[in-house]
Amino acid sequence: MTDLLSQPLTLPCGAVLSNRFGKAPLTEGLADEHNRANERLVRLYRRWSEGGAGLLVSGNVHIDRRYLERPGNVAIDGNGGLEWIKAYAEAGTSAGNHFWMQINHPGRQGAVTRDGTFPGPSAIPLKVPGRPPFETRALSEEEILEIIRRFAFVATTARECGFTGVQIHSAHGYLLSSFLSGLSNTRTDAWGGSLPNRARALLETVRAVRKAVGPDFPVSVKLNSSDFQKGGFTNEESVEVVRWLGEEKIDLLEITGGNYEELPWLEDVKPSTKRREGYFLDYAKRMQAVATMPLMITGGMRTRAGMEDALRSGGMDVIGLGRPMCVDTDICKQLLSRESNSAISYESALPVDPLVIAAGATPAEAKALEMWTNLVWFFVQIWRLGDGLEPQRDMTALEAYRIYRETEDRQTAALAPLDPPLRVAT
Ligand SMILES: Cc1cc2nc3c(=O)[nH]c(=O)nc-3n(C[C@H](O)[C@H](O)[C@H](O)COP(=O)(O)O)c2cc1C
């Protein structure tokens, strides 16, 4: 029987992935106070490169230091440190695999702002239980065009520095994804309203990036199969966007779902509530019916049988693995060599210490906190890897939460002002 997972994949641009494993993008939070890469990222990616996946996608790299998804994000906006971006690319490709840079603007879902505002398609703040609504302002058309140029500038820099591809982040509620949703985008100009208008920011970004990197360089998009919100971006709309992305000749579409207001891949952490392997497979199938590009499915893929099934009968081309890579960095190698038949779902076994759930929290706040605590356990494992330590599998959720809070508070306080100044993208 052919071993499907070890088959190479030739992408439309001609690049070849050596097997069907893709490390999903995982925000690292390891950058310095100027949001530059450093030796901690180099150490982390050398280890991931040795882990056997044909493709690694970086955690989201930002196009503008003013708006970050977290304080430790890498940004590329004239802040210098390109020698470290080169070292980071070299480490991530050291075993001969592909290493693509995920490029992002967090939009209204940012956690850090250096100018006191959170820009989105419209002035509609994010609603997450337990989190105060951050003031959100609507971007002007000039700013939208500047953002598109910045995506292209970062993609060019990625190519020049040795990354072997790029991924445009248009999922999970970040800026491009929020343009797609009628809940967060109520604009009445050319960037809102009908689906073609709501998809304009994404499609124009894809075009600008493709033009900047050329036809022979992998360009990928990460897209929600659905936002799973009443009035939000639906699966039917996502299918339509896949059709349009096909016309743009992208090389790989990573399929996921949800946003901070509704995150199915975080909610589905308990074995009792887990429906079955692959959170988004049913939705992905409808996208596959119209897709002309290879597809990567990410979210809850854990067993060899489930992965092979997704490739064989689901029409998927690449299996994305996120959380298992934070702990078992060589899990792809183990699955390829048949030393292992499944990745461990650490998220299902993590005890959430009741102390973490703030006293007096509403059930919705408690649920949000529980999900967040589950997530930060993985951040802390990534930080350990960046420091050259082994993952700590027996770390409690409470311990991880404390480390996470201390670290992010320290990083936020240390963030440098905009010096060197922002590069204006032309
Ligand atoms: C610690 C952590 C960081 C993440 N950072 C990103 C990111 O930067 N960009 C992104 O598109 N998704 C990010 N994700 C989502 C993952 O790429 C993936 O979609 C999700 O973990 C579900 O896959 P899994 O079930 O294999 O973990 C992150 C997830 C985790 C756990």
Major beta sheet, strand line-up: 3-4-7-11-12-13-14-15
Q: In the CATH scheme, what's the topology name?
A: TIM Barrel
The global form is globular
Q: How many distinct domains?
A: 1
* Mean pLDDT metric: 93
Structural class: alpha/beta
How does the major sheet shape up? 8 strands, parallel, barrel
**Rg, please?**
20 Å
The number of helices is 14
Low-confidence region ranges: 269-273
The CATH superfamily bears the name: Aldolase class I
Order of helices and strands: EEEHEEEHEEEEHEHHHEHEHHEHEHHHH
Distinct ligand kinds: flavin mononucleotide
Proportion of beta-strand residues? 5-15%
What is the CATH domain class? Alpha Beta
Distance separating the two termini: 53 Å
DSSP E strands, number: 15
The CATH architecture is Alpha-Beta Barrel
Approximately how much helix is present in the residues?
25-40%
Structural features, described:
Residues 7-335 form the NADH:flavin oxidoreductase/NADH oxidase N-terminal domain. It holds the Pfam family Oxidored_FMN. It comes from Panacagrimonas perspica. This is 2,4-dienoyl-CoA reductase-like NADH-dependent reductase (Old Yellow Enzyme family). GO terms for molecular function: FMN binding; oxidoreductase activity. The chain is α/β, with parallel strands linked by helices. The protein has a single domain, classed as Aldolase class I (TIM Barrel), CATH 3.20.20.70. The protein has 14 helices and 15 strands. The strands form four sheets. The protein has an eight-stranded parallel beta barrel, surrounded by five helices. The longest helix is centred in the last third of the chain and has 24 residues, at 363-386. It is globular and about 50 Å long. The N and C termini lie far apart (53 Å). The model is unreliable at 269-273 (pLDDT under 50). The chain binds flavin mononucleotide (FMN). Residues 24-27, 59-60, 102, 169, 171-172, 222, 256, 265, 298-300, 321-323, 375, 378-379 line the site of flavin mononucleotide.
